[in-house]
Task: structure prediction
Amino acid sequence: MSDLFGKLKQGIDKSTKVIGAKSASLIDSNKVKSEISSLKKSKDDLIHKIGMTVYETDREIFSVEMVADELANIHAIDVQIGEKEDELERIRIEAEEKIQELNK
Result:
């Protein structure tokens, strides 16, 4: 009978650890997804600003230099988004590895 309770306790402990690992992964993933969303919003705002500058500026006086800072910022944001997407993938892989380790 005590063997049954021992196995039950082990099963509960294992399940608790798996749930903890999944919860931590979910929290980390959601944080990174929120950061990606914020970066994409910033990028959209810059694209809109460039569009308005192009639209409102006379064709004969417009030059790319007028929006060079915005273009550089968009490039920097694209790099940050790529890094965050890599981080999201790393979180997913680490969570899978931890869950597989717990399921052994």
